Amino acid sequence: MIKTDRVSLEAQLNQLSFLNLENDPYIAIIQEIDPVDPIDVYAHYNHKKGERFYWSNANGDTTFVGVGVCDELAVHATPQRFEAMQAEIDKRRQRIHVLGDEVDGTGPIYFGGFSFFNQPHKEEWQSFQENYFVLPKQLLTVKDGRYFVTCHMKLDEESTVANIKTFVEQQLREIDAVQPFRKQQSHRDAIRDPLTYVEWEQLIESAVAQIQSSPLDKVVLAREVEAIFDERIALEDVLHVLTDNQQHSYVFVMEQGEDAFIGASPERLVSVEQNIIYSACLAGTTSRGETLDEDDLKAWQLLHDEKNLEEHRYVVKMIEQAVQPLCDNLDVPDDPVIYPLTTIQHLYTPVKGELTKGVSLFDVLSVLHPTPALGGEPRQEAMAFIESNEPIERGWYAAPIGWFDRHLNGEFAVAIRSSLVSGQTARLFAGCGIVADSDAEAEYDETNLKLTPMLDALGGQQDGHDG
Ligand SMILES: C=C(O[C@H]1C=CC=C(C(=O)O)[C@@H]1O)C(=O)O
Ligand SMILES: [Mg+2]
């Protein structure tokens, strides 16, 4: 329901008659609304399958649910794809009229992702364009406990104030009609790992051999596991479990046609708000302990484990070197701390900087992707190794996923702990950082640890949210 103490829709729309609506401009109409559960909203729009997205950030202060397609930005695999994406949004920026209070996270928000390799997608990733962002027709924003709906429309010569009003009222009525969703049960039937353990062992051994005998220092290698269910996977159920169970994580879904990419990633790539930039070095992994003492011991061991510290140091060094030239001030602590997740813990070094005037979010993305937490070090050697040896198609896995607004504020996570869902089938991805003294079995166990939260969420292990 529209909050009555806000600017009335009528008053907002009256402003339209003063606008110069040439060149097919877009409008964004923002209304503050009463609280509503974002996952219920997501589930309500089941009839818009293929045109929905969901995002909540790791510190829980921002959630988006997007429905419908008002505008799309797509860039093919061109050499300067981040710059090309910025050029696309630059073309739109002056052409979007915003009515209402543009609180951070409301107004025109484009959501989407980039592919890991700058290459066209094949086979199972075909529904996803390589580098693609959508401006939804309707955006629900939950920001610092306040709730907003932004309706986006592309205007043409047929548009009138009356039909804009009808559109906005219709969207608000839909939100009013949202009911708590009823969860379904899906059961995991079969799990297929296309890569046998022996093949994994060979892959890791050849990476280690290459690291020991060439300039390659680190390479991140991933497995894909296929899980087949006895019915269609209900994304809202999976979302619900992920948001409940995966603390300190970015929870995301992007639907495209019949397919969806879903995950709960702990790893921020970059966020930009005004001129402040945050990034994160996250690499080096162990499990959580069963008891507090065991948990502390595992954390202490991780903080002192040379192999994991080495994995981590490549990431810190590269991010620092990449971002330094773009910043006036940069703060990178000397030593990592622990980043605790529900069943896993990582080594973590936060990065904070002040961007030099004129440097944009896309400039940062362009230098950061992929960090050695996803690709390796040196980047070119690692990418070449992955491309010729890893037997999976990465698609959007391990690549930047997130959002930006017309002021080029935004936030991107790296899409790990994720799964490509298609009907009754889910393909899950998990990788790990291989360095000179990596052991194939330990790395295999680490990927299993990283696969478990997604497998559990997909498998319908629930916590009693019955609607
Ligand atoms: C590549 C993944 O994790 C990265 C992020 C954190 C820790 C990692 C590690 O310890 O190997 C990986 O670099 C993944 O989960 O698929
Ligand atoms: Mg590791």
UniProtKB/TrEMBL annotation:
Keyword Isomerase belongs to the record: yes
User: Which residues of this protein are catalytic?
Assistant: K218, E267
**Top-level EC class as recorded in UniProt:** isomerase
Entry keyword annotation includes Magnesium: yes
Q: What is its EC number?
A: 5.4.4.2
InterPro entries in the record: ADC_synthase, Chorismate_C, IsoChor_synthase, MenF
Co-factor(s) = Mg(2+)
This enzyme catalyses: chorismate = isochorismate
**Superkingdom as given in the UniProt entry:** Bacteria
Q: Which GO terms describe its molecular function?
A: isochorismate synthase activity
Q: Identify the keywords attached in UniProt to this record, alphabetized.
A: Isomerase, Magnesium, Menaquinone biosynthesis, Metal-binding
Recorded metabolic or biological pathway in which this protein acts: Quinol/quinone metabolism; menaquinone biosynthesis; Quinol/quinone metabolism; 1,4-dihydroxy-2-naphthoate biosynthesis; 1,4-dihydroxy-2-naphthoate from chorismate: step 1/7
Tell me which residues bind Mg(2+).
Answer: E311, E446
Residue span, Chorismate-utilising enzyme C-terminal domain? 199-450
Query: Gene3D superfamilies this protein is in?
Result: Anthranilate synthase (3.60.120.10)
Role according to the record = Catalyzes the conversion of chorismate to isochorismate.
Assigned protein family = Belongs to the isochorismate synthase family.
The protein, known as? Isochorismate synthase MenF
Report the source organism: Alkalibacillus flavidus
